Amino acid sequence: MTKMSIIIPVYNKEKYVSSCLNSIIHSNMKDVEIICINDHSIDHSLDILRQFEKLDPRIKVIDMIEHHGVSWARNIGMSLAQGEYIAFVDADDVVSKNMYEDYYEYAKYYDAPIVKGSFWKIDEDEFLEHYSFETLRQKPKMVSLLNNDYEIYNESPAIWNKIYSHDFIEGITFLENHIFEDISFTYPLLLKADIMLEMQERDYYYRRTPNSILNRQEPINPKILDIIDVYKECIHLGKKFFLTPYQMNLLKGRVKKDIYDNLWMIKDAKISPEEKRKILSNILTLFLHFDPKFLETNGEYERRMNEYSIEQLIPYAGGEMLDQEDEIIKKDTLARIRKINQRKIT
């Protein structure tokens, strides 16, 4: 059985995909299969992938006749993967020479279902073929996500800085045609795993390009409301994994934090006040309808997050949010908001 399956969705990445593949095929991990899903690129990405496929038998190129998006491509990759562990790489990123060999060896030694590391951000035109990634490896840290709510509230939903046991994620897929797809994949799995092995080095190099999510400057994506479906998928998977009530509360708290983070992004966006109020109102009302206990807290960390975020963000939504609801929801929402705002944090 192959040790590692590395899944790479590719869509119009002709400028970067060679760097990405070179970093993987020249890494210390040799027993890998590299599954490249060409998601109907309209540039020369497919030509480049075919050239690599001819040179390295470990590379498998799947060419799709229609464009379906990154989640769909990753799901296709997972359905084909034969490795003991699965990793995901974005086609414009680069990995260190040691990353997958070290992650795999530690995963096997500790019998860890998930291993994660940290990452660097690199500039758009930084190709890095001649960079040295040699680092002094430190002993990894075993993290219990159930015994420290700070860990689950602050863990990144990114999938490319982690490897996953194939057996552990069997049957789990990405939510297609949605943004925030990493959230509903990562958080339920972290809680299902209970423990995660955390490497101390930065082995993944995330490229900041104009279209990168972490670097976008355009107006707010109208699909921002996908966060509601993502939340529902998290709850669905939590129930599927038979998470305990405590685990489910941690899961809800983590997704709530992501919603607050996105509300702040909207608040600071360079859009008209009218559009800003409308988007904020829609998110808050939809979420309160879906989960009437959204504002309730489960711990000090979440309590502080609620108090500060609601107090600061509700004025930006204005009365429009409450005007859309029936009287019972209006009164209940106002009462809970006021109760939170009146709390004294010591």
Task: Describe this protein's structure.
There is one protein chain. The protein has 346 residues and is an alpha/beta fold. The chain is built from twelve helices and nine strands. The protein has helices spanning 17-25, 45-55, 70-80, 99-110, 149-154, 181-193, 226-240, 245-267, 273-290, 300-317, 320-323, 327-342; strands at 4-10, 32-38, 59-63, 85-88, 94-95, 114-122, 141-144, 162-165, 195-207.
Number of helices: 12
Q: For the CA atoms, what is the radius of gyration?
A: 22 Å
Can you tell me the residue ranges where pLDDT is under 50 for at least 5 consecutive residues? 212-218, 311-330
- State the helical fraction: 40-55%
Q: Which overall shape is indicated by the principal axes computed on the Cα atoms?
A: globular
Q: N-to-C terminal Cα separation, in Å?
A: 55 Å
Question: What series of H and E elements makes up the topology?
Answer: EHEHEHEEHEEHEHEHHHHHH
Name the structural class.
Answer: alpha/beta
Q: Biggest sheet, open or closed, and with what strands and sense?
A: 9 strands, mixed
**Mean of the pLDDT scores?**
78
Give the percentage of residues in beta strands.
15-25%
Number of strands: 9
